[in-house]
Design goal:
The chain folds into two domains: 310 residues, Rossmann fold, CATH 3.40.50; 162 residues, 3-Layer(aba) Sandwich (Rossmann fold). Helix content is 47%, strand content 11%. The protein contains 19 helices and 13 strands. The chain is globular and about 135 Å long.
């Protein structure tokens, strides 16, 4: 009897292994020129996919960050470089195997300026043209990707339109990835319904409820952002025709996406009408919290009931770019408070208070999950904000560039954050801001409320499970083309039935005009008949009257 169980179990094990290998998919993830936080997001998501039996291969460009080894044997990558030895491209390092170099000076000064950001975007057209030319002209890379026999591609869409003709050439169902609030730029060319009437665009700092002037500004922003993307597609279409003749131009392929993974949720984004394969996966990078290192955990616990304030500006931003004036003002404010401060900073720092601990790297998610954490001072990057909301930690926001100002507006509206201007804030202003955020219980109460909303989803799935479910479905159904919206084939006038309204209006107007002409003619004929009748009647009376007079 004791041999019976293994005899039954062994076939089941082999069957499970066979099914797992049969269902395993090979997924190509293509990052943008500079992926920043999305790269970390897809490290976590890719690891989850790999743990479920799939193979994930990353295609990315070199950047200025140091990346740890991939965490799973089913995860591989290809790193591309750009020849910028002559320094002709502003945002790349000046070397033969160049990588993206973040223009921190520009971003710190004008990182949230709408006009400057879009102006700089248009200046990068020539760089993207050259990079696209190198990518699509790399026949050995394309042969290598074809040999890997992928089932599906996931493309980070921001400034990455050139890779869509590549995945089309490889014959892969393609899922887009969007790493911020779902509005502006490439999103306006998808089949999702994102009207500027209630979907605020990037850098506008508007909510979904807008006044008439705000809707005018938002509509202008919508048109400009789409024009920038269309301009880039128009320029890249020449490269596509050169290397992949017969391939559709990039912007038309955005409409043909088989799905979309949107890295936001309804707390930090606007509810929208989305196609069935467009899903929100906000928080997909969040992992189960791990215990802190003993020394750090002891330091955190020693804060007692006052707790710890965490300070960090994320993965993308080097904390060295923060001004010495602001750091010293923050130190002066911190030493007046009973809390301990854990700060992610680098380099030599002077006048560090005794209640401040400086670290060059911090396990941010694990610290936010710690019961001693009371407040998170951060730059309002989407990843950090999502982590703080998930763990119900109130915030003080000091946005630096791009969409960070938009997120701060939403956080303030939700009552979980207080804004702080890093360029003008004095030690007294910082002290009062921190004191208010720490001592007002409404911030913690609202953070707990939003945390519950974030975790309680209608489908009862985690973001990782939701993304995996969609990807596996699209692999099984070869892209699920039957779920694509037919609106992708309609132009603006057809989509909003403007052509129908114009036709009906023209028909009614023409009928009205014709009816008016006919009525005039009929009326004119009637009048002429009446006049003629009156004349004949008058003449008859005259004749009859004359005869009567003669008789008399």
């Amino acid at each position: 009897m004791r041999y019976l169980f293994p005899s039954i179990l062994l076939p089941l094990v082999w069957t499970t292994i066979f099914l797992q290998n049969t269902l395993a998919a090979r997924i190509l993830v293509i990052h943008a020129l500079y992926s920043g936080s999305p790269l970390l997001t897809w490290r976590t998501a890719g690891e989850y996919f790999a743990q479920n039996g799939h193979h994930v291969h990353y295609l990315r460009w070199k950047d200025s960050h140091h990346h740890s080894p991939l965490p799973h044997e089913n995860m591989t990558e290809t790193v591309l470089t750009v020849n910028n030895k002559d320094g002709r491209f502003s945002y790349l390092t000046k070397e033969k195997e160049a990588g993206f170099d973040i223009p921190f000076d520009l971003l710190l000064q004008e990182g949230m300026s709408y006009t400057r950001i879009y102006y700089e975007s248009m200046k990068t057209y020539s760089m993207f043209y050259s990079i696209c030319d190198d990518l699509l002209g790399n026949k050995e890379l394309i042969r290598q990707l074809r040999r890997m026999d992928f089932h599906l591609a996931i493309v980070d869409l921001v400034g990455n339109e050139c890779t869509l003709p590549l995945t089309h050439h490889l014959g892969l169902p393609t899922v887009g990835f969007w790493g911020m609030q779902f509005a502006s730029g490439e999103t306006t060319l998808t089949t999702a319904f994102i009207p500027p009437s209630h979907a605020p665009n990037l850098l506008t700092k508007f909510g979904s409820e807008m006044t008439f002037p705000q809707r005018m500004v938002n509509t202008f922003a919508y048109v400009v952002s789409q024009a920038v993307v269309r301009g880039q597609c128009w320029i890249l279409s020449g490269v596509v025709k050169k290397h992949l003749p017969g391939s559709p131009e990039p912007c038309s392929l955005i409409k043909e996406l088989n799905g979309m993974l949107i890295n936001s949720d309804h707390i930090m984004d606007t509810p929208q009408l989305l196609p069935p394969t467009f899903i929100r996966i906000g928080g997909i990078h969040i992992k189960k919290a791990k215990p802190l290192p003993k020394e750090l955990d002891y330091w955190m616990q020693s804060a007692g009931d006052d707790g710890v304030v965490l300070f960090g500006v994320g993965y993308t931003i080097n904390p060295k770019v923060l001004s010495k004036r602001f750091i010293q003002a923050f130190f002066q404010a911190a030493k007046r408070l009973p809390q301990k401060f854990l700060m992610k900073l680098e380099g030599h720092l002077e006048n560090v208070p005794s209640n401040v601990k400086i670290m060059s790297w911090i396990p941010q998610q694990d610290v936010l999950a710690h019961n001693a954490t009371r407040l998170f001072v951060n730059h309002c990057g989407l990843q950090g904000v999502t982590e703080a909301l998930y763990h119900a930690v109130p915030m003080v926001g000091l946005p630096i560039f791009l969409d960070q100002g938009d997120y701060l507006v939403k956080l303030v509206k939700h009552g979980v954050a207080i804004p702080l201007d890093r360029q003008t804030a004095t030690a007294e202003v910082i002290y009062q801001t921190l004191r208010r955020a720490l001592n007002n219980p409404s911030f913690k109460h609202n953070a707990k409320r939003l945390s519950k909303l974030m975790k309680d989803t209608p489908d009862k799935l985690t973001p990782q499970e939701r993304a995996l479910q969609l990807v596996e479905y699209l692999v099984r159904q070869k892209g699920a083309n039957h779920l694509k919206m037919h609106s992708r084939h309609l132009n603006f006038f057809q989509y909003f039935c403007i052509d129908i309204f114009v036709f009906v209006f023209t028909l009614l107007f023409t009928s009205y005009k014709l009816g008016k002409i006919v009525w005039r003619k009929v009326s004119s004929s009637k009048i002429q008949i009446q006049i003629q009748t009156r004349k004949e009647s008058s003449l008859f009376r005259k004749r009859v009257g004359g005869k009567i007079e003669k008789v008399l």
